[in-house]
Amino acid sequence: MFSYCSDPSTLDGLSWLSCYLTTGKHMSFYTSFLTVITLLLVTAPVALMFGFAGASAARSRFLPLSLLGKTYTAIVRGVPDIAFFMFFVIALDQAFEYLRHKVKCPDWSDPIRQGSDFVVCTQAKLPLSTSPQWVHETYGFSLAVLTYSIVFGAFAANVLFGAMRAVPRAQLETAEAYGMTQRQTFWRILVPQMWVYALPGLSNLWMILVKATPLLFLLGVEDIVYWARELGGTKTARFSDYPHGNWHAIYFFGLLVFYLMLTSVSERVFKRISARLSHGQATAAGEAQRKAAQ
Amino acid sequence: MSCLQTIQDYALRSVGIGERLLPREDFTLCEQVTLIGSGMIWNIYFGLIAITIGFFAATGMALAKSSQNPWLRKPADFFIYFFRGSPLFIQFFFAYSVFVLLKQSMPIFAPFTSAGLGATLVLLLNTTAYTAEIFYGALQSIPKGDLEAADAYGITGRTRFTRIVWPSMLRLAWPAYTNEAIFLFHATALVFFSGFPVWQQRGDALYYASYFADKTFNPFVPYPILAGFFILLTLVVITLFGTIGKRLNRHLPQTVIRRPGFLRTLIR
Question: Which of B42, B89, B179 to mutate to test the interface with A (most CBs of A within 10 A)?
């Protein structure tokens, strides 16, 4: 990066460090922090959507639909999320390839599962073996996002289901008394009011999501854990311009600090949102705001 | 090979008793169930130790956090902040690398680089922090009247704590603590994927499940088996904690909750 970095063995102290921290691999390490942030920013809304669908399904009067919604939340909550991640990444990949195989090669006669192999025709491979590297990476990342959304959608469904039930019954009755249809009551009365009850649960969920992001490493994405392991390992002078001992502890400490900062910032933001949402609500926090304003 | 034979060979494989070689091909359902079940021994071991010791440590930590003395309060605050604010997964990695470094200068730390001791320690500290936060919240919401009543009867000091404060705290914290226990058991599945080495392929349930999934390239058998075991474990935890919770609440007026029967729910 800097001009004086051409021969690292002659450097020492701060100049060595400045060169060491700006190698190409370190740049990839810094970019992987963006991967984590992207994952968070994409997953949160998608999971919220899944959760909303799940909660609405669980509330449904139509029994199979409500059972489906409840089973979805029950199973995901009963099993470690890590097991789900590892399952869905393979399962989703195979499901997509299977569907494409059925559409693209209808006259393929061999079985797809041959012993320990999963064989689909070449055109059905995802991503195609001819596609460039970035397509492979993006595909892996999108699988991860979908997996996270399914798992966290179930948690969100549980939170939103509780929040929908927490909206005072009188509010809904009033809406019915004014002649609103069920759909109108749901969208105009229930949904706007439920957020204040959902917020504690959702903020908790966000924290869990933040703390689940390092599991990306297990899904085969080159995330911060991958790079911390890669860069922290012992480097000998033969294979690296910047030989050093085992620095894993330092790198992982850096990751710990990163996550501590992320959760602290999130906590502050949620405090603000909570104050904003409580405004004018018939809750203790809303009442406290009203009294303070007087 | 009959299923009974498989169970004899592999039921205790995760602790090193029985057949040394894992099955390599033509995996039967029986082999998968037995080995994954065998791995659950590790999960239960991690969970039980962390919960048992963590329970008492968390009580102390919660008391420290609600103490007036800043020398007690600040460290407890920081401990809880540190372990609740960072991912357990990274804590495992960090702890492992620190133990490896310590081992080089002090051989006493050699056993800590194994999952059996090192990972248990991390899990213990982690659950202590989460539980302490739950207990702290419960301590803050003990009814004022209870404490005033204790004062009126002249109950002070140690008796006040063991007879009034502690039972009330547990009663209030119990539902949240049950959740924490369930999550802790789930978290034990992370251990062998986070730096701690698997010695002689003696891993936990998820280790064996992923072993089968990798070998057969078919996730639809081992992971549902794993899910079944964990749901069973979760049900046991819920039942146990439910019984304790009932006992904690036994002096309170019992409201009879009438649940609609299963059939009624189904045809509603």
Answer: B89
The angle at the Cα of B134, spanning A80 to B193, to the nearest 5 degrees, equals 30
Residue A214 lies in a domain: yes
- Which chain A residue's Cα is nearest to B95? A249
**Is pLDDT above 50 for B268?**
no
Closest CA to B51 of B182, B161, B169: B182
Burial (CB count <10 Å: 0-12, 13-18, 19+), residue A45: exposed
∠ at Cα A193 (A188, A194), nearest 5°?
A: 115
Between the alpha carbon of residue A107 and those of residues A94, A111, A120, the distances in Å are 19, 12, 12
Which range (A220-224, A229-233, B219-223, B253-257) has the least confidence? B253-257
At A122, which CATH number?
1.10.3720.10
pLDDT band for position B265 (cuts 50, 70, 90): low
Residues with Cβ within 8 Å of residue B249, at least 6 apart in sequence:
B171
**Window 45-74 of A, Cβ < 8 Å to B:** 63
Q: What is the mean pLDDT of residues A84-91?
A: 85
Contact residues for A127 (Cβ-Cβ < 8 A; gap 6+): A135, A136, A139
Peptide bond into A8 cis (omega under 30): no
Write the residue in B187, B213, B230 that is nearest to A90 by C-beta. Answer: B213
Query: Among residues of chain A, what percentage have pLDDT more than 70?
Result: 92
Mean pLDDT comparison of A131-135, A194-198, B79-83, highest-scoring range: B79-83
Chain B: residue nearest A263 by CA? B85
> Cβ(B73)–Cβ(B67) under 8 Å?
yes
Residue A73 pLDDT more than 80?
Answer: no
CATH of B37-267, one of 1.10.3720.10, 3.10.20.70, 3.40.50.1390, 3.40.1280.10: 1.10.3720.10
Per-residue pLDDT tens digits for A216-271: 888 878 888 888 888 887 777 777 777 777 888 888 999 999 999 999 999 999 88
> Which chain B residues are Cβ-neighbours of A233 within 8 angstroms?
none
Cα B12–chain centre separation: 21
ipTM: 0.84
Beta strands in chain A (DSSP E): 113-114, 117-118
The full set of domain ranges for chain B reads 37-267
